[in-house]
Task: inverse folding
C-alpha cells in the first residue's frame, strides 16, 4: 500500500495542531509532554451579592486605567500583571508579506465596503459555525477591534438616560462607553455560574433596561464562564422582557477545555448581538474584530460602521485573512492554549504558595487572567504603589466596578513567562501578608 507523502505531512500537522505531537528542530516529531493536571487547585471565589448602580459620571475610567497599562508594558524589568496579549505568531512577517503582494495592491489599497472584505467574512463565518453558531458571511461586520463593536452596539441600542445591565465587575472599556453616552448602569453581581439571574429578573422588571451586556466566556475581569443552563435562562429572561443582549466573546478560542456555545447560537429572535476579535489570539495592534448582527439591525449597524470610519483597514483585514487561509491559525491557537494552561497552572501554584489564606481566587477554564478577592481592609491603592516600587504592575478593582468602588480585588494576567509569575506573585503575596497581619 502506497501512502501519498502529502497525506503523511498533513496528518503530522493535524496531530501537531491538536497538541498530540510537537516538532523539535533538527530532531523530528515527538509525542507531547502531558501537562500536569491541576485538580487540586480549586476555585475559592465567593461572589459578593450587592447590586451596583451608577446614575451619572463624567469620568472616563478606562482611559485612566488603559494609559498606565500601556506605559508599564514598555518599561524594562517590570512584571506586568495588568495586561495580557498573545505573543506575535512567529510567521507573521511572512504572512504579512504574502498578504500584501504588489500585484494585489489594487484590491487592498482603494476604499472598501463598510461591512468588511467578503473573503474574511466567509472565513470568520466558517470559524463561528464550528463554535455552534449559525452564521452567514452577510451577518458579519468587520470592526476596528471588538471595542468598536461595543461602541457601535451600545450607541445603537441606548439613548442617554437609558438603563443598562452589566455584570459586576465587568470590562472597564464597556463601562466607559456607557458612561460617556450618559447611560445609567446597573451592575448585577457575577457568580460562579454567570450573572445572578434572580437579581437580573428583579431589575428587568423594575427598571426596564434597554440592553444587557455580558461577557459569557472567560469573563473580564473574573475569568469565569457562564454555564450552559445559565445562558439558556439568561436568554429566556431577555426574551420575556424583550431586552436585547450584547454578548462579548473577546477571549473565544483560548479555552483549556470545552465551553458552551455562545448565547447567540440559541437566539431565534435577533435579540443577541455577538462580538469577537483577533486581538487576544493574533495581534491586538492589527485592530481586527467582528460583530454578528442579524435581522433588521444589520443595515442600521452597517450604516453606523460607515459613519464611524468607512471601513476597517484593508491591510489588517488582508493579513488576518491570509493567516486564516494559511492553515497556521489552528496550530497557533493550540500552542497558545498549551502555553496559557501551563502559565495558569503555574500562577495557581504560586498563589497557593505565596498568598495569604484570606485571599480567594477563580480558576478560569481559559482566557488570559484570573481574579483575586481580598479582605475588606486591604488598602488597594497603597498595595498597588508598593508593588510598583518593586517593579510589579497590578490592575486593581476600581475600574472594573460600575460604581468605581467594589470590593478589594485584582485581576492577574497569567500570560507571562513562568519565572515572572513566580517572582511577581511572591512579591505581592509578601506585601499582602504584611497588610493582613498588621
Ligand atoms: N471586550 C473585552 C471583554 C475586552 O477585554 C477587550 C480588550 N481588553 C475588548 C472587548 C476590546 O478588545 P479589542 O478592541 O482589542 O478587540
Result:
Amino acid at each position: 500500500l502506497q501512502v501519498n507523502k502529502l497525506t503523511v505531512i498533513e496528518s503530522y500537522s493535524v496531530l501537531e495542531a491538536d497538541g498530540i505531537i510537537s516538532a523539535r528542530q533538527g530532531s523530528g516529531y515527538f509525542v507531547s509532554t502531558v501537562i500536569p493536571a491541576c485538580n487540586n487547585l480549586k476555585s475559592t471565589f465567593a461572589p459578593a451579592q450587592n447590586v451596583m448602580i451608577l446614575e451619572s459620571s463624567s469620568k472616563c475610567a478606562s482611559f485612566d486605567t488603559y494609559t498606565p497599562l500601556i506605559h508599564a508594558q514598555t518599561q524594562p524589568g517590570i512584571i506586568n500583571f495588568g495586561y495580557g496579549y498573545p505573543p506575535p505568531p512567529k510567521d507573521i512577517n511572512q504572512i504579512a508579506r504574502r498578504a500584501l503582494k504588489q500585484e494585489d495592491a489594487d484590491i487592498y489599497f482603494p476604499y472598501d465596503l463598510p461591512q468588511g472584505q467578503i473573503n474574511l467574512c466567509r472565513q470568520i463565518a466558517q470559524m463561528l459555525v464550528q463554535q455552534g453558531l449559525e452564521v452567514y458571511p452577510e451577518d458579519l461586520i468587520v470592526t476596528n477591534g471588538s471595542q468598536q463593536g461595543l461602541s457601535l452596539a451600545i450607541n445603537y441600542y441606548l439613548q442617554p438616560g437609558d438603563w443598562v445591565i452589566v455584570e459586576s465587575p465587568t470590562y472597564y472599556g464597556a463601562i466607559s462607553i456607557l458612561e460617556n453616552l450618559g447611560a445609567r448602569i446597573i451592575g448585577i453581581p457575577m457568580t460562579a455560574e454567570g450573572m445572578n439571574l434572580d437579581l437580573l429578573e428583579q431589575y428587568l422588571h423594575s427598571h426596564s433596561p434597554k440592553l444587557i451586556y455580558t461577557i459569557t466566556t472567560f469573563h473580564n475581569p473574573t475569568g469565569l464562564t457562564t454555564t450552559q443552563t445559565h445562558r439558556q435562562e439568561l436568554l429566556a429572561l431577555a426574551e420575556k422582557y424583550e431586552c436585547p443582549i450584547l454578548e462579548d466573546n473577546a477571549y473565544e478560542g483560548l479555552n483549556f477545555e470545552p465551553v458552551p456555545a455562545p448565547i447567540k447560537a440559541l437566539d431565534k429572535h435577533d435579540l443577541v448581538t455577538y462580538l469577537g476579535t483577533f486581538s487576544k489570539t493574533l495581534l491586538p495592534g492589527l485592530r481586527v474584530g467582528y460583530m454578528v448582527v442579524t435581522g433588521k439591525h444589520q443595515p442600521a449597524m452597517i450604516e453606523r460602521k460607515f459613519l464611524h470610519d468607512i471601513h476597517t483597514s484593508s491591510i489588517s483585514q488582508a493579513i488576518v485573512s491570509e493567516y486564516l487561509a494559511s492553515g497556521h491559525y489552528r496550530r497557533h491557537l493550540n500552542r497558545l492554549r498549551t502555553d496559557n494552561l501551563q502559565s495558569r497552572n503555574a500562577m495557581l501554584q504560586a498563589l497557593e504558595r505565596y498568598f495569604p489564606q484570606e485571599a480567594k481566587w477563580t480558576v478560569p477554564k481559559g482566557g488570559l487572567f484570573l481574579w483575586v478577592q481580598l479582605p475588606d481592609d486591604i488598602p488597594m491603592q497603597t498595595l498597588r504603589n508598593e508593588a510598583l516600587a518593586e517593579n510589579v504592575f497590578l490592575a486593581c478593582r476600581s475600574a472594573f466596578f460600575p460604581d468605581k468602588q467594589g470590593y478589594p480585588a485584582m485581576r492577574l494576567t497569567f500570560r507571562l513567562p513562568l519565572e515572572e509569575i513566580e517572582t511577581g506573585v511572591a512579591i505581592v503575596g509578601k506585601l499582602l501578608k504584611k497588610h493582613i497581619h498588621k
